[in-house]
Every structure is written in C-alpha cells, then in structure tokens.
Amino acid sequence: MSAAEERLIQQSTRNAWLLSLPALIVLVVAASGPLLIVLIYSFLSPGQHGNVIWEFSTDGWVGILWSKDIFSEEWMLADAHLAIFWRSLWLSLLTTAFTFIVGFPTAWFIATRPPKERALWLFLITIPFWTNLLIRTYAINEVLRKEGLMNTVLMGMGITDMPIEVLYTQTAIFIGMTYVYLPLMVLPLFAAIDRFDMKLLEAGYDLYASRMQVLRRVILPIVKPGIIAGSILVFVPSLGAYVTPRVLGGGKQMMIGNFIELQFLQGKNWPLGAALSMLLLVIVMVALLVYVRYANKGSSSHG
Amino acid sequence: MAERAFHVARLPGFATTAIIVFVALYLPIFTLVAYSFNASTSLAIWGGFSLDWYAKAWDNQQVKDATIRSLIIASFAAAISTTVATMAALGTTRRRAFKGQTLIYVAINQPLMVPEIVTAVALMIVFGLIKVWLTSIGMGGLTTGLGYLILAHSAFCIPFAYLPIRARLEGMDLTLETAAADLYASPWQTFRRVTLPLLAPGMIAGAMLAFVISLDDVVITEFVKSGGQDTLPTYMLGQMRRQLTPEINAVSTMLLGLTVVLLTAFFLLTRKKT
Known about the structure:
The complex is a heterodimer of chains A (303) and B (274).
Chain A: H1 3-41, E1 45-46, E2 52-53, H2 59-62, E3 66-68, E4 75-77, H3 79-111, H4 115-130, H5 133-144, H6 149-156, H7 170-194, H8 199-206, H9 211-222, H10 224-239, H11 243-249, H12 256-264, H13 270-297
Antiparallel strand pairs in A: 1-2, 3-4
Helix pairs in contact in A: 1-13, 3-7, 3-10, 4-7, 5-7, 5-11, 7-10, 7-11, 8-9, 10-13, 12-13
Chain B: H1 2-8, H2 14-36, H3 52-59, H4 61-92, H5 101-113, H6 116-136, H7 147-170, H8 175-182, H9 187-216, H10 219-224, H11 232-239, H12 246-273
Helix pairs in contact in B: 2-12, 3-12, 4-7, 4-9, 5-7, 7-9, 8-9, 9-12
C-alpha cells in the first residue's frame, strides 16, 4: 500500500469518527455515561432522605438478597425480595412461552399469505407495536376490570354470576405483557419463516412424515434463529417491565422495575436501587450476548 | 406448483389461532376508543354517543399543557436526533470498514438494549448531580426547563432515527456523488445538491419514528421531569391511580390517532423508495 493510499484511509476513518461524534456525545451524556454513575452509586452508603453518602459500602449489593434486621442488625435472607425476583422471572418466562405459542401460528399465517395480502397483515401487527405502551396497557385494563368487557361478556353469556376480579393480580400482568410484547415475537418469527423454503415440507410429507413430525423435525429447527430472536426480544423488556406491572398489578404485584423505583422514591435506599439496576442490566446483557452468538451462528444475514 | 406449496404449508389450527390473535390485538384498543364516545360518566355503562369527554379534555388546562409540552419535546428530540443520526449514518456507511466501527454501532444501539427503567434512574441521578452543581456555582436558573427532557429524549431517539437513514444510504451508491465531484462540485455542493435531496426521505422517515418514540415515552420522562413538567403519557399514568373517567379514553384516542397518522405516513414514505 502506498503512503498516499494509507493517508486516504486514515482521512476516511477520521471523517467517520468526526461525523459520528455529535451522536456519540449525546449518547455518552444521556445514555451510556450515566450508567457508570449508577455503578458507582451501588457501592456507596444510603443517605437518610434518599440520595447517597460518599462512603464505600457493599451493602447495596448485599441488600439484593439479604436485609438487615432492624433490632439485631443481623443480615437475614430477604423473602420479600426473593418473591419479587421470582415473580419477575416467572412472569417473563411465561410471557415469552405464551407469546411464542400464539405468535408462531400467527407468523406462519402471515408468511403463507399471498404476497399482496402479506403487507397488510404485517402492517396490522406493526401498528400495535408502535402504539403507546401505556395506552395499550390501559386498553387491557378496560377489558379486565370488574365492569369491563370480559366480565360483561362472561356474565351476559351466563358463564359466571359474579364478576371475576383479574385486575391487580399476576394473571393481569401476564395477560398485559403478553398483549403488549406479542408483536416483538411475531416480527422476527415472520422474518425467519419468510425465508423458509416450503419445498422442504413437500419433501417431508413425501417421506411419510406426519404433520407433527414435519413441524418438530423440519420447521422448528430451521426457524430456530427467529425463535431465539423473538424470545429474547420479549424476555428482555418483560424482565425490566415497569408500566405494565404498575398499571395492571396495582402496586401490590411488584416486578424488578417497580422494586427499583421503590428504592429511589419511598424506600430511600439509592445504593440498593443502583445495585438492582446493575443486576438487571447484567442479566439483559447476558441474554443479548446469547442472542448475538446464535444470530452469528445462523446462516441468515439479517439481524 | 404454487397452489400445492400453499396447501402443503397449511398447518391445522394455525389460521384460526392467527385470526384470534388479530382480534385479541385490536379488540381492547377498539373498546378503549368506543368508550371515549360514551355519554355516561361511568366507564361501565354505555350511555349513548357523545363527544363530551373530548370537550372536557379540551377544556382541561393540565391536558392542554401536557400536550403542548409533549409536542415541544418530541419536535426538539426528533430534530436533534435526526441531525446527529444523519451525520453518524454518513460516517458509518459507504466507506471501507474502519477501526471502532463496531463500537459506534454498539453506542448508537445502546438505548435499545438497556432496560428503560435503568436508563431512567441513571438519568435521574446524573441530572440531579448536574442541578446541584449548577446551583452551587450560582447558575440555579438552569436547573429548570425542558432541556433535560429534550436531551434524554434525543438520546433514546437516535437509534430509531439512525435505522431508516442508514438503510436509505446503503441503497444509494456513490456514482452520482462521484459524477458531481468530476464536474468540479465542491464537497459541500455535492452534499447539499446531490446527497441531501436523495437522503431526504430517509431523514423524514427517521424524524417521524423519533417523534413517535419521544411522544410515547413514559418511564424515562417520569424519572427525569421536575415538578409540573408532565407530558401527556406521564399525566395519563398519574391519572390512572385515581378514579378513571372516559376523559382518559378521549386523550388516549387523540394520541392514538396522531400515532396512526404518523405511522401511515412513514410506511407510505418508505414504500415509495422501492
């Protein structure tokens, strides 16, 4: 490589960085940078009225699983915290599983429509995806509440005499999260199924495979990257959900997101809140790394 | 052949499930919209068609203020994020791979990966520190204002603005720009007269997505706003703790309408490209 060429490449790289710089500055100031401060705060001592005292302490991290007894000052396993983590994990996994169970047939249906119709069906899935999450959660509230659509229909049909109280239960959060995150499952599944070669099905059937065998042995293994992408896209926001458990769980059924808020507002234990935020971030990053590894392994160029 | 392949692709129960999913997806939204036209005060009983709740929402000063605030923040955030995202897209596409390219991609997409609640508390802490510092150096006047919300929104809107702009740029080859340069256009003239007009649809699409995303944000706004800085979504979130009236439905329906209009425009705009 000649010196002139090398200079040209250097110049190109410098331009690339210069052009990206304004975006990077905004992101470092208002997105990445603040995360570092949260990490620092997780190792400080809580102030009396919220905020922190600049003294090193690991209590924030210890406090994730243990809490100090008010009288004996002994650390005890915090059952209340464990219940919140368990609920977050369980509801997120359930949401992921259920969005897959109903999302897969939906994605398959869209992908097997004639091309002209397909765009319309896709648009119908995309609209809720871009619609305000709060409004969608509130819409579920409308359906589930005591005098809401669900109970009106159930009682009208004589299935039940008394309204079923679903609102402010874990079931309500599960229904709400399934509803709001479903498009995140359908879209990557659709992308994977869309690339699926339908001739493989004929081959399967020609070899006397049953429908179930074709589904399990041919379709699912091939669209696996889409399944993993969809699962992670649903699992990650479910785990960090804040609005849905707040509106549909009514403050009683907290998830990690609400638990973090509690530490910063009423709980006045900022280091614990910071440690919980970092923990959530680490879990999400691990999930995303798994995704990236699978996405690279798959032969697909999308992603 | 196509007929047969289609038949082969049919799996039992799939179409039924899909139709149920589509109904379930839209039924709650339609219910919400329908009840915004309910004449009755109660959310439970249908009292006939009426536009009263829209009139009520229109007369509600808090709703008006929150709407204006939301629109101001979304406009600034869309403008800022689209500008910096366009520059970043020009920097990261149509040139040979360079050192740190992945780092820039990761940084730009970072708001999509970090849970919103984590960013929200992080910004609350950092902006709190900045405000304390500003007060201590006698610039307490800068601790209020919408600047903090605009900055926060601009950051998380960047990936959404960047995506369509980058997609548009990748579809443009350098032939026209090279031709312009051959005809002695200066780099600025080339950019102004060739690149920018070609890129405009991508930029408009990016700005629209950024606008919608900013307009919809609840969590980050809830933690960053100071007192009396409610946006439409945070105002609605606050109301949901109280006695609900169809006024919330009316406000939701208006916000919903705006989103649908913007999205339809976005789809038409990006479809034209192909």
